[in-house]
């Protein structure tokens, strides 16, 4: 969720703003929103469409990731590094799914956030942490598979791989939360008095960071280090894996590797790339050209959240043990249903027999009584 929130509409420079105003820490901030931003808040169509998308994501996310977490945590053994990374990814996806109703309510209320600044900051950070932790986790899974397939000797010589995987997951969270510190330490709500609404991370003041240099570092960290570098690493790993399998493995293994590579890269291209590219483009145009790509960026957020629904399918392709456990659970469920259906059929059959036998016995009794009566006469 990868993440649904925005980098958001940065308050633009108003033509008549007072650059000596105490509210203007960066000399081009204004307390007034521009016409495009106000038009977006007045247009309910976009918020309703996004709400519908989030509702669908919620309905798929929670049961899908709930089942995945149960299988990975309680039914899949041993806990190799790939399984540990998948558990980490499932936890972040499920956390986003559980707070999605808050975002749905916010959208349905017309960009009016009723839950206070702290919960707004928490949800915003959670959504961004989900997206970038998902990106880093997919990179870690691809590296683990690369070592196991392309470098098997070095892979077998590595000791304490489980411990390294756990440390890697903790390191991911530490890096992402450190990168998102500006969002954690800022009040992300903004009161639009003319519309009587309070937005949550849809209006972001430029004075959240002290200078253009700090904004550049922040944007480069998100779009460059946390997205582009993992994306390139993942592509290289899967290209090497496929090249190795093409030369040495059976067609079945090649097919599985191709399907997994296609699924992972599709998540990057469809879910993560539009959001991060538009994030950078929107921020640059807003900071330097007083222009906006916010509507496109807003719509791309729903794509970035779809990854939380796709991840369980990636687990199915990536882990043989996960596939085996899922098939076993489904087989038991089918067997249980068939057993219940057979019991119901037997019960209904016995009921039918007893019902049919009753009148026959009575009929026989009546016949015998009539015969006796006739003999008496």
TrEMBL record:
Belongs to the G-protein coupled receptor 1 family. One of its GO terms (molecular function) is G protein-coupled receptor activity. InterPro entries: GPCR_Rhodpsn, GPCR_Rhodpsn_7TM. The keyword Transmembrane applies. It is a multi-pass membrane protein. This is G-protein coupled receptors family 1 profile domain-containing protein. The chain crosses the membrane at residues 52-73, 85-105, 125-143, 164-183, 215-241, 262-284, 296-318. The keyword RNA-binding does not apply. Residues 64-315 form the G-protein coupled receptors family 1 profile domain. GO terms for cellular component: plasma membrane. Keywords: Cell membrane, G-protein coupled receptor, Glycoprotein, Membrane, Receptor, Transducer, Transmembrane, Transmembrane helix. GO terms for biological process: phospholipase C-activating G protein-coupled receptor signaling pathway; positive regulation of Rho protein signal transduction. Its main location: membrane. PROSITE patterns: G_PROTEIN_RECEP_F1_1, G_PROTEIN_RECEP_F1_2. It is found in: Cell membrane.
């Amino acid at each position: 969720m990868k993440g649904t929130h925005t980098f958001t509409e940065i308050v633009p420079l108003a033509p008549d703003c007072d650059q000596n105003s105490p509210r203007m820490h960066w000399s081009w901030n204004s307390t007034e929103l521009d016409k495009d931003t106000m038009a977006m808040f007045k247009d309910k169509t976009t918020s309703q469409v996004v709400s519908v998308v989030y509702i669908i994501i919620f309905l798929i996310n929670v049961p899908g990731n709930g089942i995945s977490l149960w299988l990975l945590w309680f039914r899949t053994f041993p806990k190799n590094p790939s399984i540990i990374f998948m558990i980490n990814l499932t936890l972040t996806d499920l956390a986003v799914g559980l707070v999605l109703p808050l975002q749905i309510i916010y959208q349905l209320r017309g960009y009016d956030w009723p839950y206070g600044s702290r919960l707004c900051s928490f949800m915003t950070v959670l959504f961004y942490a989900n997206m970038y932790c998902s990106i880093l986790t997919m990179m870690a899974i691809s590296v683990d598979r690369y070592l196991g397939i392309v470098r098997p000797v070095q892979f077998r010589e590595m000791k304490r791989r489980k411990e390294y995987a756990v440390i890697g997951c903790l390191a991911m969270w530490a890096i992402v939360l450190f990168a998102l510190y500006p969002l954690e330490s800022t009040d992300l709500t903004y009161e639009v008095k003319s519309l009587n609404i309070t937005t949550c991370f849809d209006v972001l003041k430029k004075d959240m960071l002290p200078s253009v240099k700090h904004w550049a570092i922040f944007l480069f960290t998100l779009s460059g280090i946390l997205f582009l570098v993992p994306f390139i690493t993942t592509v290289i790993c899967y290209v090497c894996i496929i090249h190795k399998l093409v030369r040495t493995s059976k067609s079945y293994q090649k097919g599985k590797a191709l399907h997994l590579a296609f699924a992972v890269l599709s998540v990057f291209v469809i879910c993560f790339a539009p959001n991060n590219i538009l994030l950078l483009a929107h921020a640059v145009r807003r900071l330097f050209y007083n222009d906006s790509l916010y509507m496109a960026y807003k719509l791309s957020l729903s794509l970035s959240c779809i990854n939380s629904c796709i991840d369980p399918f990636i687990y199915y392709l990536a882990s043989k043990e996960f596939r085996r456990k899922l098939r076993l659970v489904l087989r038991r469920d089918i067997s249980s249903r068939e057993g219940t259906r057979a019991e119901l059929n037997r019960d209904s059959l016995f009921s039918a027999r007893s019902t049919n036998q009753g009148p026959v016995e009575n009929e026989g009794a009546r016949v015998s009584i009539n015969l006796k009566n006739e003999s008496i006469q």
